[in-house]
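Please fill in the sequence for the structure shown.

STRUCTURE ENCODING:
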């Protein structure tokens, strides 16, 4: 009786709820830092006496360069040494960067510390939510579980926006932007002890031949399910292939080659669409002539839509008629179109409306692709394979958030979002033609 087959039959219990809460804590602070970066760029131009493009580069682009390295390193650790080991170490590194960054003497040291922060935060969403949820939850509910986890985490941008509104215009011993980093760093330190409460992935233990350890975890899950639900279905017959070594060549095998090409193109481009808005919206508003206070107010309203979007995704992410493949490819095209409208917006009503609609689409897309990317490879190489393709999204972020601000400041918002639209169009074509369907398909069958 395989561990995977026993997991597949389990209903949602308090074990799953507790696990999801523990996983979501770390993702909250990753999103906190991702959106924090967009708010502090303007204050950084004044503090370090640099241009807006330079501030965006060292604050956001360099952060994603660190995330690129972190994704590859920590997901390799995740496959070789265990998911749990990886997700404990990365948080220590992230907290160091966040706590030291506000005291950097110049923009270059600041950039180095943002690189270190990215190194730690970079693999957070991938290892902690995407992979752990995929491996712990049965196929019929894994998409919903991931969407709920992200929805809880997506309160972070709202918290950041409120804190930015309260802190940035003022100085309380330290400047407001410094407090935003310090709050994030202290928050991460407080959740590190909770990381030790997260059990290792039993699917990973099984494919590593450590079945006794895996059975202890699944036995506990079954005991809780029996006490809460009364009975369990018969275990499913699932083929499990054990592996002690990570075979990189499998990424380009007959089974996975097409998926790898699709995901690599997708990940490199999608960040230009998603973060071309999420990280740059405050800067876009500033270039449109809005004051700091108005920029903060409008951003706060817009970022509420990201949370609402994630709530909506809970109810659609496992839909078989609107498969995750189409949630990814169609919704991002709509985001590209709305981005063009945001670039053309002039009045506050136009800015808020188009920005709100963009955010309302964003996490239907984001939650779907996070689940989609993590379920297309087998457990034996999942963390590394996902890490490589997800690292390309971080590399894409570095490239696009280095170049898009130059387009923004040189040619204006519409020209920047025209480039974003072209990226969205390419993604729609690539995923639509090369991507397999995935909703509610047993993990071992989908990634066999």
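FILLED IN BY: designer on duty
SEQUENCE:
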């Amino acid at each position: 009786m395989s561990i995977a087959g026993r997991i597949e039959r389990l209903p949602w219990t308090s074990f799953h709820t507790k696990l999801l809460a523990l996983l979501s804590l770390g993702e909250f602070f990753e999103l906190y830092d991702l959106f924090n970066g967009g708010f502090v760029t303007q204050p950084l131009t004044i503090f370090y006496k640099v241009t807006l493009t330079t501030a965006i580069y060292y604050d956001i682009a360099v952060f994603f360069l660190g995330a690129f390295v972190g994704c590859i390193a920590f997901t390799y650790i995740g496959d070789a040494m265990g998911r749990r080991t990886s997700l404990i170490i990365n948080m220590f590194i992230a907290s160091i960067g966040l706590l030291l960054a506000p005291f950097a003497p110049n923009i270059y040291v600041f950039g180095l510390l943002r690189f270190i922060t990215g190194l730690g935060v970079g693999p957070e969403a991938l290892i902690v939510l995407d992979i752990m949820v995929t491996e712990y939850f049965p196929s019929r509910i894994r998409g919903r579980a991931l969407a709920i986890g992200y929805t809880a985490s997506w309160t972070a941008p709202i918290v950041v926006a409120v804190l930015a509104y309260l802190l940035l215009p003022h100085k309380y011993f330290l400047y407001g932007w410094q407090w935003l980093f310090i709050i994030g760093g202290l928050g991460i330190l407080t959740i590190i002890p909770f990381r030790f409460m997260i059990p290792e992935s039993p699917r990973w233990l099984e494919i590593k031949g450590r079945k006794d350890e895996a059975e202890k975890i699944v036995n506990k899950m079954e005991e809780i399910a029996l006490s809460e639900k009364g009975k369990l279905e018969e275990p499913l017959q699932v083929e499990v292939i054990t592996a002690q070594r990570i075979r990189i060549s499998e990424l380009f095998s007959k089974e996975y080659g097409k998926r790898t090409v699709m995901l690599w193109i997708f990940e490199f481009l999608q960040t230009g669409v998603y973060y071309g808005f999420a990280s740059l919206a405050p800067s876009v508003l500033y270039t449109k002539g809005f004051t700091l206070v108005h920029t903060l107010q409008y951003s706060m309203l817009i970022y509420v839509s990201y949370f609402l979007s994630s709530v909506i995704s809970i109810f659609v992410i496992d839909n078989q008629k609107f498969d995750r493949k189409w949630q990814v490819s169609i919704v991002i095209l709509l985001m590209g179109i709305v981005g063009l409208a945001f670039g053309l917006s002039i009045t506050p009503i136009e800015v808020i409306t188009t920005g709100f609609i963009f955010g309302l689409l964003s996490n239907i897309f984001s939650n779907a692709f996070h689940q989609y990317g993590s379920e297309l490879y087998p457990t034996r190489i999942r963390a590394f394979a996902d890490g490589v393709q997800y690292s390309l999204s971080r590399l894409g972020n570095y490239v696009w958030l280095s170049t898009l601000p130059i387009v923004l400041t040189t040619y204006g918002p519409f020209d920047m979002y025209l480039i974003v639209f072209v990226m969205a169009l390419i993604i729609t074509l690539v995923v639509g033609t090369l991507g397999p369907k995935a909703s509610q398909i047993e993990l071992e069958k989908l990634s066999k």
